[in-house]
Description:
Strand order of the largest sheet of chain A: 8-10-7-11-9-12-13
CATH superfamily of the largest domain in chain A: PurM-like, N-terminal domain
Oligomer: homodimer
Order of helices and strands of chain A: HEEEHEHEEEHHHHEHEHHEEEEH
Helix content of chain A: 25-40%
Largest interface: A-B, 63 and 63 residues
Low-confidence stretches of chain A: 193-198, 341-348
Amino acid sequence: xxxxxxxxxxxxxxxxxxxxxxxxxxxxxxxxxxxxxxxxxxxxxxxxxxxxxxxxxxxxxxxxxxxxxxxxxxxxxxxxxxxxxxxxxxxxxxxxxxxxxxxxxxxxxxxxxxxxxxxxxxxxxxxxxxxxxxxxxxxxxxxxxxxxxxxxxxxxxxxxxxxxxxxxxxxxxxxxxxxxxxxxxxxxxxxxxxxxxxxxxxxxxxxxxxxxxxxxxxxxxxxxxxxxxxxxxxxxxxxxxxxxxxxxxxxxxxxxxxxxxxxxxxxxxxxxxxxxxxxxxxxxxxxxxxxxxxxxxxxxxxxxxxxxxxxxxxxxxxxxxxxxxxxxxxxxxxxxxxxxxxxxxxxx
Amino acid sequence: xxxxxxxxxxxxxxxxxxxxxxxxxxxxxxxxxxxxxxxxxxxxxxxxxxxxxxxxxxxxxxxxxxxxxxxxxxxxxxxxxxxxxxxxxxxxxxxxxxxxxxxxxxxxxxxxxxxxxxxxxxxxxxxxxxxxxxxxxxxxxxxxxxxxxxxxxxxxxxxxxxxxxxxxxxxxxxxxxxxxxxxxxxxxxxxxxxxxxxxxxxxxxxxxxxxxxxxxxxxxxxxxxxxxxxxxxxxxxxxxxxxxxxxxxxxxxxxxxxxxxxxxxxxxxxxxxxxxxxxxxxxxxxxxxxxxxxxxxxxxxxxxxxxxxxxxxxxxxxxxxxxxxxxxxxxxxxxxxxxxxxxxxxxx
Lengths: 348, 348
């Protein structure tokens, strides 16, 4: 069964399997998978809608990721966009264009990743589309959520403080590690991984540099392969603006500044870096700060709040009227643009 | 400008252009394109959500279609799923994975097609995602709509009559013509096409068989290249079940029967065939009935209603308890399955 190729099994069979695996009709879902459209009784509040693609050889490399991780990540990156609006995710629709030689085992593991992420974020699958693909795999998801008071990118005001929810650069460092490792690393969700941690000798084959340990590289790989979106519940109501960091701090901060028509002063020393990043970056020969500034896919939240408001976040700078500068330890200022990121991408 | 390649112009520029072209903030759209998610104030009634992909070399062939037609069709096939629930489409989100050598002219014409379809169906673009693609183009859309009383596939009862909204097989015949023509045909929306009709001598180079005229093949090509989704307003409240015919009458009727747990008796003679189809199919050497039964992408609606209800539709048969048969002119019955379609696909 699991050795069968997708083309043999066919779309109809696969759809039936998905319907069995993901029963959706319940509560506010009047019609789930299996009709021309899903039918939802909308909740109170504003409806949030977002969609994000993951394209093979652009967003992921099938030699580096397991299908389980791919499914989990596809959900996380879309949930992250709902969280970035201060919202609660509720429903997901999935699109998958799969090459005809994709085997059923791949599809099963992909859906296992989807399922674990759905359970983690408490969302339901209500629809989607499956197609063969002539060449490379292409995935997308649409997330539906709610927010009583959506937090926009455009609400930052000069004088607001800038915060991030966690360490930056880990995911980009994880990607650099994957480029050395060049094979899938069997990282699963946290609970399962504890068991794996016990056999850490096995995992040394995924440590590409002498002098590094599995416990150092594992969190970086995890951040890249199976990112967890940050839930802003608890501080979203205090945020004046918010965005998720998917393309790197400088690019996403530039987006926020552009929408708010403001500038920003960021204190490099305040940018939170994990010990694992600091240890590993030197082995790779990249500055950890440059990974934190320009590396993508951290899926931390970047938000602003009025000075004096107590928020759960790491203070990294202030919103200015228009100047956009990085400030180093010695107090020297350097202008920044989103370009930093684009150069980084080209050099990849 | 229009000669520039997408990779040079970049995602950010393209997004800015789209935001200018598709201003969305108005009325119930609190946040449109340009934030982490769109924000909508939901209307009364049930929310409908559907998503459909169009993948290069699976759903379309870039040698055969213009980017304008592709954009228009992407909207139509998704609107069709909302109509098939008896709903009104409201919002669209778009995903595009475009090969890096896609030029800006292509993107502009693609968006022109999207825009004309959006205006035709009175829907608004509220979000999406743009990515480069390593190899082939992959498109998808998510449609959001409303229905006070959604019409499901599962409501058909034995004794109900089966109806379709229009001629079947035209689109499949149009596809067969395209396989002979092997180049894009400049069909645009109806109003523009009238002007084109005047220069029909020009169009004879798109007529692949002697003895056929442009006025015969044009409607078939149009149905394939630029399908129009059928709005069920006016009869949806009388329908007991409904589905759109995207994969052929037999396959979609089988889906409806499976969901309703019933059978169907279809009178072949009642299946509406256009004169253009009858004329053209004989030149191609395919039976027009087989195109009507198994050809996909007609985007007509297939629905059932209680006997005695007056509905705007073409009566093609009745729902039975379980037997699924085609009845010919002489009254002979032949069982049908969805297989008919799959064989047809394999032979393509």
